[in-house]
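User:
Can I borrow your eye for a moment on a structure tokenisation matter? Would you put together a sequence-and-structure record for a protein of your own picking? Please set it down just below, with no commentary around it:
AI:
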Amino acid sequence: MDRPRAGIRVLTEDMHPDQLRLDEAAATERIAAAFPALAGQPVVALSTPGTMNALFRIGDAHVARFPLQSAALEDVAAEARALDEFATCSPFPAPVVRGVVDRDEGYPSAWSVQAWIPGRTASETLADEDPGALPLLADDLARLIGALRLAPLRGRTFDGRGRGGELHAHEEWMTQCFAKSGHLLDVPSARALWQRLSQIPHPGTEVMSHKDLIPPNLLVSDDHRLAGVLDGGSFGAADPSLDLVVAWHLLGLDDRRRLRAALGSDGQEWCRGAAWALQQAMGLGWYYERTNPAMAALGLRTMRRLLADPDLD
């Protein structure tokens, strides 16, 4: 089965400052001009919970990604290189880039066209609150994370952007999140959990990491196996615990324990993974409450799992 072909998400507010917008007609024109071989193929805007790009399906084999905030050519090109490297390291299908286009007067951001990977995301396939038993999916996720950890670093280290370095570097952001989330969740419990987990020291080693293993980026088959991995454009060096966020974003307690056992994570690595999941989830709830309800719901769901997890006591 495939991801939705149509449906444009209508937002009452932009998700980001200076957010860019592009309709199907303008996207069709830009794609045809930049990729003549794709001219004449149907272009359909996709409704997704994504927060960084507007997606347009091109025929049956391609998808265009237009950043929602202006991005320089070198940044989109770097993302394209990371996507291609990720696809070579992932044991599951992942998109490769067909081309990168620079910004111009018509669209003030560089953008790209990628191969389309068929399938439905975990967000579409699995029940939101209680996904049920997913032992085979837990095994597949362990296989994915294990394979990424074996990818060569080639001298690379964490680039300092986003998650994956020192937990304490996010204190200011977490303080803001706690201040804005009182109407959404048990902030005192969340703050206490963060204070405890964020004290766990960095292991002093790094591995290659997807960096954003959330349900919208995972394709899941009808028999609940991992069928593909999307959005590998941040693939890079990071804390080995970072990709463990998927445990709380997606799995119930028994399957989290199965994933942990398969990876051989000790207590410190596992709890640092929970800290990264908490850092991400706390920002999703309040930030996207009005502009992207699906992402806000994901964050709050993850927070409920974290706060109820007996293995984090």
Summary: The chain has a mean pLDDT of 93. The chain has two domains: 24-115, 122-312.
